Amino acid sequence: MEIRSYPFPDPDDLGVNETYLRLQREEPVSRVRLPYGGEAWIATRYADVKTVMGDPRFVRAPVMDPDRDPPRTMPEVPGISTILSMDPPEHTRLRRILAKAFTARRTAQLRDRAQEIVNDLLDRMEDQGPPADLMDALAMPVAITLISEMLGVPNLDRAQFRAWSDAAVAITAFTVPEIEAAAASLRAYIRDLVEEKRKHPADDMLTVLVTAHDDEDRLSEEELVSFGVTLLIAGHETTGSEIGNFVYTLLARPDKLAEVRADPSLLPTAIEELLRHTKLSGAPAFPRFATVDVELSGVRIAAGEAVFVDGLVANRDPEVFENPDELNFHRPSIPHFAFGHGVHHCIGAPLARMELQVAIATLLKRFPNLRLAGDVAIKKGRLVRGPQTLPVRW
Question: Of 67, 80, 74, 64, which Cα lies nearest the Cα of 281?
Answer without folding.
Answer: 74
